[in-house]
Amino acid sequence: MYQLLTDSCCDLPYQTLHDHHVDFVSMHFAIDGVEYEDDLGENHYDINAFYQQLKQNVMPTTTQVNVGQFVDFFTPYVKTKTPILYIGFSSGLSGTFNSATQARTMLLEKYPDAQIYLVDTLAACAGEGQFVLDAIDKRDAGMAIDELAKWLTDRRLQYRMWFTVDKLDFLYHGGRVSRTSAALGTMLNIKPVMDVDTAGKLRVVRKVRARKRSLVDLANETLKAIQENPQHRVIISTSGDREAANFIKDRLHEASPQTPLQIGNIGPTIASHTGFGCVAVFSMATEDRQ
């Protein structure tokens, strides 16, 4: 048997990973100089209190996982000759996956027979989580580790990720939009409709007026994937706006009652860059995204 690994940017609940024997490495974030571990709720961090801080324009900073942390994360499995498959946060959004790649190279120099597979999901948040959940299903069905790594890599552009934010301040703070765009967008109530491109980078697809219109657009874009793959689960994630998440869930359920739908939290690492009220929808089509 082999070991599935991921990182806390998958934004799946700790209990889900624990129950399915998936280990993860944590990102870290800091507020007012105090550092916290993004542990997916293992130690019952108050995520709703965190969202309220975001709502008050507190802007946390985040830290990627470095090479040494990955060496420490992988080594216990390598020493016991347990094959590992790490399913990682998009290389287009963080240097974390590059750290994992460097750690793999270092470990193979010392343990040349180690089986260390890495999958760059080109995804974020529960988009990465979708890979993990599909990997659990394939592992439990008996798929070999090398086949699973190839299966995920071959299909990674079939995963769909659509986002919108309530305020542009955090995107400006993270360098995603200019100061002028953020100021005008706030004044004119403009909401970006975004996805993740083929390089795993955030992309503004269009800008719409009013929050409801952006939510409708997320639902409509997701329905295109559902039409191709109606049985695959859809995950709706939010940094505090459950009403908006339920609005999208209701629209999707009305259009496709057979599609499994679930709502989850955007974890503190991702939410530190989106602010309060981000809503994201994650699905899987059968054709590659462009």
Give a short account of the largest sheet.
6 strands, mixed
- What is the overall silhouette? globular
Tell me which CATH architecture of the largest domain applies here. 3-Layer(aba) Sandwich
Strand order of the largest sheet: 10-9-8-13-11-12
The number of E-state strands comes to 13
Q: How many H/I helices?
A: 11
Order of helices and strands: EHEEEHEHEHEHHEHHEEHEHEHE
Strand proportion, as a percent range, falls in 15-25%
What share of residues is helical?
40-55%
Query: What is the CA–CA distance across the termini?
Result: 35 Å
- Parts with pLDDT < 50 across at least 5 consecutive residues: none
What would the CATH topology of the largest domain be?
Rossmann fold
Overall pLDDT level: 94
Q: What Rg do the Cα atoms give?
A: 19 Å
Counting structural domains, the number is 2
What class, by secondary structure content? alpha/beta
Keywords: Lipid-binding
InterPro entries: DegV, DegV_C, DegV_domain_contain
Pfam families: DegV (PF02645)
Organism: Lacticaseibacillus chiayiensis
